[in-house]
Each structure stands twice: as structure tokens, then as C-alpha cells.
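User: Fold this; C-alpha cells only.

Assistant: Input:
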Amino acid sequence: MTDSTVPFDRRNGVLHSTVAEVRSVPALAAKMRQIDNCALPASYTDIFNARALSPAYLVQNHVGAREVQTAVTTIAQVADKLRRMARAYGEWQEFDIPAFFDLWPEHAPHLVHVEERVSTVNVTFFADLLLPSFQRAEQYWAQEFFAAYQTARPPLNASADSSSFTAHFVEFEQPKMRAYWDKLIAVMAEARRALWNDIDFLAATAGGEEKAQWQWAWRDPAPPGLDPRLLPSLQQLPTLTLGVEFPLPASRQPGRVRRLRRSWESNARRRIQR
């Protein structure tokens, strides 16, 4: 996973607009920890407002248990697709991600990453993006909270002199971000508990790998002025990110013909020497 942010220069007041790949709860938490020194973000999930997800991936946008229930059903279906992908992959001359996963073409690159290596295929499905609670939290962070923080410049010491912008941030913007965050973590934790008996989900869960991608963000001190609940430890963060790895079909492995020729020539020499 790449980090496409450009450093924010407070001395020169330069903000560089970019779309960072905030595709999971760990990614969003990492960006929260960078809020005082990263670039002006553009919402990564705003694309789902321009065109709704295909029906197979529409998680109910309701308060409480309904979002969890529909999320569990949807993610179980994704895990099943990932289980079947190893067999299906070799049947395509060029694997069609949107067709296999029933995704709109513009959504597939956001949700699915497929990497062919020398002899294996690595597939990641960023299932956190499917949750309306994640979309709300990510969009609010990118579209309102980040700018409010930069304007407020909240001091490290709450008793220090502050502006009206700081007061507005502390009294209104930060509680709203915290409410979105708390709802997201609650939904994510409930969904994971509900999926814990699903064999396909357990086989495909890639939370550890996703957290490892962002652990660098916890090496530096946390930004000043943020509520501690917006700065959880990396180990506490739940994620529904899924991933599988399977052998790359032999016919598509780089250098396969060359290796077969070497093997044939080696066997031929051994037969001659006998």
C-alpha cells in the first residue's frame, strides 16, 4: 500500500491536495495521527456518493444492529469469493476484477488489490470501505475535521491561550468526530464478533497485515489537542480487511518456459551420462 500524502509546511502555509489511500480503520487512525503534518486530504470514499456500490455490496445505512447484520452477510460473501478465486483465477486469460467480484469498474480499484508475484498471487479486499459508518467517519475527517484542526491549531496544554476557532473545534468539531469514530469502532467490533465462527472469514482475515502497513505512524508523538479516544493504540484497532494468497498458474509465471527448457536439458544430459 502506498502513502500518497505530501508533507504540510506550516511555515509557508502550503497545503497540497491529494487522495490518500485510506481504505481501513488502521489507515484512518494513522492519518489521524498525522493531522498536524500531513497534506490536505480528499475523501477516498466520496466515490461511493457519486455512484452507489453494486447491490451485492450495499450495507444498510441504519443505526444499530442493522448495519452490523447486513455487513456480516456482505463480508461473508466476499470471503467466499476469495476462497473460490484461486480456482477461478487461472480460467481467465486476463483476470477481470469487476466481473468476478460484481463491482462497478470505478469501485474495483478502491476495494480490491491484486498483485502477481513470481509464483504467487496476493489479493486484498478492503472490506472496511463497505461500511456506512466508515464512510461517514472518513468523509467527515477529510472534508471537515482536518480543516477545523488546522484552523484551530489546538495547543498541547488545554489551559493555554486559544482562539474562537480553537473553542469551536474543542466544543463542536472534535465531539462530532469522536461520535463518528466511536460508532465505527463499535460496528466494526460487533461485525468481527459475528464473523468469528465463519470459516471463510477466518481463513481470509488480513488484519495483521493491514496493521503492519501503518505501524510507522505510531513511532512519532501524537499530535497535540486531540481527544485520546481518537488516538488508540494500533493493537486495539479492529479491521475487516481480507486477503488471500495462492499459486500463480504455471502458464503465467515469468520465465516458466526458460525453467522448463533448463529442466529438460538437465534431464537429457543425465540420461546421456548413464
